[in-house]
Amino acid sequence: MRTSKYLLSTLKETPNDAEIVSHQLMLRAGMIRKLASGLYTWLPTGLRVLRKVENIIREEMNKAGAVETLMPVVQPSELWQETGRWDKFGPELLRIADRHDRPFVLGPTHEEVITDMVRNEVKSYKQLPLSLYQIQTKFRDEVRPRFGVMRSREFIMKDAYSFHIDRESLEATYQDMHTAYCNIFNRMGLDFRPVLADSGAIGGSGSQEFHVLAESGEDLIAFSTDSDYAANIEKAEALAPTTPRAEPTQAMTLVDTPDAKTIAQLVEQFDLPIEQTIKTLYVKASEHIEAPIIALLLRGDHELNEVKAENLPEVAAPLTFATEEEIRELIGAGPGSLGPVGLKLPFITDHAVAVMSDFAAGANIDDKHYFGINWGRDVELGQVADLRNVVEGDPSPCGQGTLLLKRGIEVGHIFQLGTNYSESMKASVLGPDGKSVTMEMGCYGIGCTRVVAASIEQNHDQNGIIWPNAIAPFEVVIVPMNMHKSERVQEAAEKLYADLQAQGIDVLFDDRKERPGVMLSDMELIGIPHMVIIGDRSMDEGNFEYKNRRSGEKTPVPMSDVVAHLQAQLAQ
Amino acid sequence: MRTSKYLLSTLKETPNDAEIVSHQLMLRAGMIRKLASGLYTWLPTGLRVLRKVENIIREEMNKAGAVETLMPVVQPSELWQETGRWDKFGPELLRIADRHDRPFVLGPTHEEVITDMVRNEVKSYKQLPLSLYQIQTKFRDEVRPRFGVMRSREFIMKDAYSFHIDRESLEATYQDMHTAYCNIFNRMGLDFRPVLADSGAIGGSGSQEFHVLAESGEDLIAFSTDSDYAANIEKAEALAPTTPRAEPTQAMTLVDTPDAKTIAQLVEQFDLPIEQTIKTLYVKASEHIEAPIIALLLRGDHELNEVKAENLPEVAAPLTFATEEEIRELIGAGPGSLGPVGLKLPFITDHAVAVMSDFAAGANIDDKHYFGINWGRDVELGQVADLRNVVEGDPSPCGQGTLLLKRGIEVGHIFQLGTNYSESMKASVLGPDGKSVTMEMGCYGIGCTRVVAASIEQNHDQNGIIWPNAIAPFEVVIVPMNMHKSERVQEAAEKLYADLQAQGIDVLFDDRKERPGVMLSDMELIGIPHMVIIGDRSMDEGNFEYKNRRSGEKTPVPMSDVVAHLQAQLAQ
Fold first, then answer.
1. What is the pLDDT of residues B301-341, one digit of tens each?
2. Can you give the residue ranges of the Aminoacyl-transfer RNA synthetases class-II family profile domain (chains A, B) (predicted)?
3. CA pair distance B193, B173, nearest whole angstrom
């Protein structure tokens, strides 16, 4: 490709509305342009990267035995009604009506459509297992689209679905997909980790997310210092302490605390260790218990894990915090003075709280706390559960080492759905004994457009993007210096361009009449991994100059060796 | 690919609701499935063809210097308001609202989006000419989707757009695109013709359609017997007769014709040659003339060409026929008795009518006609124009030969838009003299999904589809006979499968435990061009059997020669 026939569209300035570095660099490097909130046009440079990402995914899906299909973007509402998601899905599901006023959706995912197709086409266990995938445009009407293509409304996903006669077959394919995902992200040159994920409302037994590690990530991942264990903080188990509860040493006393509305104020004003305080949060209770709200008790320095709380049968889903009015009506006191002592409502205690002694908590009387509370003596310890987010230094649930926390960007998710969809949609086959069997299902997603942004979060410097070879928009760029003044430079550049193309190398030839500085900084911004600079001065010595985008190193390379030199670089 | 890991989904029966052969065969061969009216899922076999079609288009677009981009499916209404198409476009334009009730459309085409992008990114004539294209999902809410993917609501198009500093540059790119389109359809092995097309409401000077010739085509194409001339019948000019009008031989007489409401009845009851009759059609007049309706006069055996009529400045667009009430109110007589004699309203006369003598027409009195009418003597001949569809035998407008008519399926359209969009959207660049110049634009479409169906209309027999090599879902299929009973057959089939894959041949291995007859008829239905049948009987003689899908010929080929034999077939 010659830049003179191309749409380069680099920007000098960082656009104001781009918050994270990948969004800034994708705009500056001329990869994307915003059409409307959450809607982006992929300019040529961006699309070249996206297509390479898609092709790697396609190749590895094919290797894993999945077969490609393509389902419509527009889906009839009837299928979503069958699974109940027409009602359950929030406003992210964009509902539309056609000219005859029939209801449709813009597909945010395709479980319904694929299950409908497979129940019609697959009749016998002999046709199983079957894995199908597509690379298709999806739409999710995010309330606040942000970070460019990282969280856009229209995006491209690879979504695969597998169908099985039994659990064992599902688990085998799930493992194959795990391997394929590792191959995919390795081939893209990304620093990633598969992490345990919550299976949440969809149910199913197994679920792993694939995260690209980056400081801008929206997710927190817990890693073991000593093993392969990694889990989304939503899922990472906080083990119950193994040290026993200390014996009481203090009497329980009622203390006036009019200026202590928060744990921080209480700790400061009364010089308490924060580990000796507890906080009491009220959430809506589920229909399983006879109380409108239920209290969750956490140590003062711990954070509620909302996913763990929501997964408790006693807690209503989606998790909803009680309002101050509801609390005041039922307790007689407001937030800031709540606690377990004398409480008539049910509560669930975090493991870490259950081993505390001589602790402080609200007295359920405005402006008063109890100090020196002890379990058993002052209040009965009821149900104990894992309610909190893990923190760095917690023992790893795998039994080896302690936990570290890092930020990650979710780029993939693999999921054992089980019979969640196949049951409601009656997707069954005849088994070996001639009886009807509901198919087991798995689903496996990769956000293709998001992968592009995540790669940049992990591969950039102050000058721009640094592409891994496999997903670079071009592998090599030729930058001739003042070509339009030097016939020798022009001839050498044209010849090298032809030679590299003949070797099947994906090469950009910057044939613009621009100042060398502009061309070099554009190419660093775009992040092409390998650059050959052709100028009169180095040619006097029989050389071209090779520059590696990642190391920044410049090396003179004899003109006759440059193709081989580049091939060696690309083979690395 | 092994059929055991694949979703073959062939059907024995022809589905009831499929009217044309491509729709029937795409369903039967397991290429597509209907999800809802005008919405189709592409099953693996269909998608393989579609991807090959897309790749051929992509390669030829790249060769023609066009650069690939990708624009969103969902487009903001504001851009459509800028060009006025928000109001002008009918209900085929699906208008939707997002969660914040902001109006969007599902893009049926992307002129607005690309023009917006280019006006933002391109500032100087130095960046021109620029050609951009995408292969993207489109949506057109057809009132009556039909013929499967031939006229579906969601479909995939390649749409290219070119931008230029002047007309000459546009014309040069238009010619390059013409060449690229010929290369594309030639590579696909299709019998196609570029034909002149009407530029209609969009204006612009040049426009050609690319038609695949097939009896089921919705369009009629006029060809010259002696030259390359070809035009959509909408556009094909009916030349004015060169023979002069004959002198009058009859007096004009008023005849009672109570039972002649149609030309056919008039001709039959009064034994008139149909070439001596004229019919009078009334349509709404445009604001350019001072009459609510205007008459169009055609020879009794000729058909009105609605596109030609609509393009006349005196006729309102869109073409609207007057109602019987409107006619009766203004003329005093009804359809069946209309004609030019004594008429107070304006009329336009077709060239063929202008040379008639002694002809019959309605008298503008119910149940009466005039016979023996002559121009000048009985009624003044006013404006004469080309109003009719050409018929076979008409002289070709190119001056060579006469016209033949054939049916075609429009699969592509290239168009010199001029400044239609760039002017309303203020898409301009700085010219060489530093002054702002509105860009000239071209647009170039191919219906990727429709091409697949059109290919089948042209390539099938009673047993199923016959794919050209370049777009076949698989190039070769291996059909082993009773493999599960013969180790020798199985080994030979596995070895051939591996050998063909190693040669980069796209091969399907039918490893199902099916009866040979079922396997053979499935593969003929799917239309794989080259088949190798492996059986004990032919192996006894050291042969495999090669069967060519198109010729139906079976040839024994020595086992050791079969790879070379297939390579030779594929190279043809």
1. 999 999 999 999 999 988 999 999 999 999 999 888 999 99
2. 38-468
3. 19
- Residues on chain A touching B40 (C-beta within 8 angstroms): 72
Interface of B with A in 166-225 (CB under 8 A): none
* Contact indicator for A565, A553 with CB cutoff of 8 Å: no
Phi and psi at A393, nearest 5°, equal 95, -15
Distance from CA of B72 to the nearest CA of A (A): 6
CA A126 → CA A159, A442, B511, distances in Å? Answer: 24, 18, 13
Do B514 and B479 contact (CB within 8 A), yes or no? no
Q: Which chain B residues are within 8 Å of A6, Cβ to Cβ?
A: 67
Q: What is the complex's ipTM, to 2 decimals?
A: 0.91
CA A96 – CA B318 distance, rounded (Å): 29
- Reading the block at residue B293, the tokens are 């309706």
B141 interfacial to chain A (CB closer than 8 Å): yes
Q: What is the pLDDT of residues A93-143, one digit of tens each?
A: 999 999 999 999 999 999 999 999 999 999 999 999 999 999 999 999 999
**CB–CB of B55/B47 below 8 Å?**
no
**What confidence score (pLDDT) does residue B529 get?**
98
Q: What's the average model confidence in pLDDT over B136-140?
A: 98
Indicate the burial class of B430 (C-beta count within 10 angstroms; 0-12, 13-18, 19 or more).
middle
B443: left (phi over 0), alpha (psi -120 to 50) or beta: beta
Contact A10, A525 (CB under 8 A): yes
φ/ψ of B85, rounded to 5, equals: -80, -15
Q: Identify the pLDDT of residue A205.
A: 57
Mean pLDDT taken over chain A: 95
Tell which residue, B133, B115, B128, B122, has the closest CA to residue B62: B133
For residue B96, what is the nearest residue in chain A, using CA coordinates? A96
Distance from CA of A412 to the nearest CA of B (A): 22
Contact A88, A317 (CB under 8 A): no
φ, ψ dihedrals at A113, nearest 5°:
-65, -45
3-class secondary-structure state, position A47 = helix
User: Would you state the pLDDT for residue B75?
Assistant: 98
Three-state DSSP class for residue A224: strand
Query: In this predicted model, what pLDDT tens digit does every residue of B262-285 receive, in sequence order?
Result: 999 999 999 999 999 999 999 999
What HEC string does A293-352 produce?
Answer: EEEEEEECCCCECHHHHHCCCCECCCCCECCHHHHHHHHCCCCCCCCCCCCCCCEEEEHH
Q: What's the CA gap between B494 and B478, in Å, rounded?
A: 9
pLDDT, one tens digit per residue, over A512-571 is: 989 999 999 999 999 999 999 999 999 999 999 999 999 999 999 999 999 999 999 999
Backbone angles phi, psi at B192, to 5 degrees: -130, 165
Asked if B35's CB is within 8 angstroms of A71's CB, the reply is yes
| A113 contacts in chain B (CB < 8 Å) | 35, 41
With 70 as the cut, is the pLDDT of residue A202 above it?
Answer: no
Assess contact for B280 and B362: CB atoms under 8 A: yes
Query: How far from B187 is each of A23, B182, B308, CA to CA, in Å?
Result: 40, 8, 34
Phi and psi torsions of B487, nearest 5°: -65, -35
Cβ of B74 and A44 within 8 Å? no
Q: Which pTM was predicted?
A: 0.92
User: Looking at the complex, does the CB of residue B104 fall below 8 Å from at least one CB of chain A?
Assistant: yes
